[in-house]
Write a structure and sequence with these properties.
- The complex is a heterodimer of chains A (365) and B (128).
- Among the domains of chain A are: 132 residues, Gyrase A, domain 2 (2-Layer Sandwich), CATH 3.30.1360; 87 residues, Alpha-Beta Plaits (2-Layer Sandwich).
- In chain A, 19% of the residues lie in helices and 33% in strands.
- Chain A has 8 helices and 19 strands.
- In chain A, the strands form 4 sheets. Chain A has a 6-stranded mixed sheet.
- In chain A, α2 packs across α7.
- The N and C termini of chain A lie far apart (42 Å).
- Chain B has one domain: RNA polymerase II/Efflux pump adaptor protein, barrel-sandwich hybrid domain (OB fold (Dihydrolipoamide Acetyltransferase, E2P), Beta Barrel), CATH 2.40.50.
- Chain B is built from 3 helices and 9 strands.
- In chain B, the strands form 2 sheets. In chain B, strands 1-2-3-9-8-5 form a 6-stranded antiparallel sheet. Chain B has a 3-stranded antiparallel sheet with strand order 4-6-7.
- The longest helix of chain B has 12 residues.
- Classes of the chains: A alpha+beta (365), B alpha+beta (128).
- Chains A and B meet through α2 and α7 of A and β4 and β6 of B.
């Protein structure tokens, strides 16, 4: 199958990026080096091409009512120009995808979904329209999406933007001009840093990318995106979330609004919340040179668990991971991770491992 | 480019043969594929290596990879500097980034290794 290319594919290739297949796309995993890119985002600013993600526009008189039915978070808490992290669940409470929902106008919302789940999520949502007076448009090919992340994002972008960015608060989204081009700009991200996400047309993408690199913003690939989100304690669908994992288990009860009324998956999730989940997602840190990796077994005094994501943390200079462990396990417990036949000491810890924007992240319970 | 005077394996190790001993590291292709190396796990001096069997592992930020012994023998030296500076594997893989030195138990085993041209052909195929 021919891999899909983002509007910035040529830019990545000419920068000498290492390209990898990701969810059917030919994407840059790194340019100069993963650690350098990771550090740039933590210390200054980096830019990620995330145009592979899916964008659905939901509009019509029943738009918010429909979204409140198909998503777990409470859409009524949104206002024009604001966003929320949310989940698409099935009747069994499994997670079809996790998503960011931006309210553009009173009757129009933008839902950003994972590239790997775009087709599935699209089919799932389309199948739920029923009698709702709502229009669903798959606009995934109409947006080039650039995530500029890091503490210097605002300072570097502000001169090129027709809006005073200091006034654009976290989670907000506005229609603005950046470098003379009309875009949507949201103060959101997936790195645990302040940052902006720029939704522009595929035609404007390369010019905006060039402007950003001209501001000494470091191009960063999927490799750094993963280490940054892991340090920030953010779930990745396919690892911490999935069709056979409920948000309660993944520590995301905070984005499941049980009190909002009927929604897909409510009964199943209420039952899990009532009885308590059979496993809980926890952060863990390994000792010394041990680095936890996906699927490594975990042993605890309450039973076995498994690592869902793990890496060497460039910021903390050690092994970090997320793991499903028995619910009786507590933060601070000593556990062991089996790393290639050896038992390594590890400790269950609070997440995020690192964050500059803790107030933004949905609180785990 | 891969040095002409070295021998290579399909698992992307390089071998510098010097009489009955040889020095072993990973190739430029391997370090590039791994990305930033953060730990190198090596055997102790005196340990035995068996051709095509793991003798250690390299951890980069994003993945861990076994190191396969190109030859059988006894480990006579280990590059301890990699403990404090594992990134040397990225910056000088054919020099200061060497990993172990082995005294060969079977001199004939080196004949089965690839020369630089054959290895380059393998890399070209993998990158195409």
């Amino acid at each position: 199958m021919k891999l899909k290319q983002t509007p910035l594919h040529g830019r990545h290739v000419s920068l000498g990026a290492r390209m990898v297949q990701f969810a059917g796309w030919d994407m840059p995993v790194q340019y100069a080096g993963l650690i350098a890119e990771h550090d740039a985002v933590r210390s200054t600013a980096g830019v990620f091409d995330v145009s592979h993600m899916g964008e659905f526009v939901v509009s019509g008189p029943d738009a918010t009512e429909f979204l409140n039915y198909v998503l777990t978070n409470d859409v009524a808490r949104l206002r024009k120009g604001r966003s929320q992290y949310t989940l698409i669940c099935n009747e069994a409470g499994g997670v079809v995808d996790d998503a960011m929902l931006y309210q553009l106008t009173e009757t129009e919302c933008l839902l950003v979904v994972n590239a790997a789940n775009m087709e599935t999520a699209w089919g799932w949502l389309a199948g739920l329209v029923g009698d709702f007076e709502v229009q669903l448009e798959n606009r995934s090919d109409d947006y080039c999406l650039l995530a500029v992340q890091g503490p210097e994002t605002e300072a570097r972008l502000d001169p090129g933007c027709d809006l005073d960015l200091t006034g654009l608060r976290r989670t907000r989204i506005r229609e603005v001009e950046v470098f003379g081009r009309g875009v949507l700009i949201g103060r959101t991200g997936y790195t645990g840093e302040d940052g902006l996400e720029i939704f522009c047309s595929p035609e404007d993408g390369p010019a905006i990318w060039d402007e950003l690199l001209g501001l000494d913003i470091t191009p960063a690939g999927l490799g750094a995106r993963n280490t940054l989100r892991l340090e920030a304690g953010m779930a990745l669908h396919g690892n911490e979330l999935g069709i056979d994992i409920t948000p309660i288990e993944a520590g995301l009860a905070g984005v499941v609004a049980m009190e909002k009324g009927q929604f897909v998956g409510r009964e199943a999730l209420a039952a899990v919340a009532e009885s308590g989940p059979s496993r809980r997602l926890r952060g863990l840190r390994t000792s010394g040179r041990g680095i936890p990796r996906d699927h490594y077994p975990v042993k605890t005094e309450h039973g076995e668990g498994v690592v869902t994501s793990g890496t060497f943390s460039p910021t903390l200079q050690g092994g970090i991971g997320m793991a499903f462990v028995p619910p009786a396990c507590e933060i601070g417990d000593g556990v062991s991770v089996e790393i290639r036949g050896h038992e390594w000491e590890a400790t269950l810890v609070e997440m995020p491992f690192y964050s500059n924007v803790t107030q933004w992240r949905a609180k785990s319970t | 480019m891969n040095p002409e005077e070295l021998k290579y394996t399909r698992e992307h190790e390089w071998v510098r043969v010097e009489g009955e001993e040889c020095t072993i590291g990973i190739t430029d292709y391997a370090q590039d594929e791994l990305g930033d190396v953060v730990f190198v796990e090596l055997p102790d001096v005196g340990a035995a290596t068996a051709k095509d069997k793991p003798f250690g592992a390299v951890e980069s930020v994003k993945a861990v990879s076994d190191l396969f012994a190109p030859v059988s023998g006894e480990v006579v030296a280990v590059n301890g500097d990699l403990g404090n500076a594992p990134e040397t594997v990225n910056t000088d893989t054919y020099g200061e980034g060497w990993m172990i030195r082995v005294r060969l138990s079977d001199l004939g085993e080196v004949d089965s290794l690839m020369d630089a041209a054959a290895y380059q052909k393998l890399v070209d195929e993998l990158r195409s």
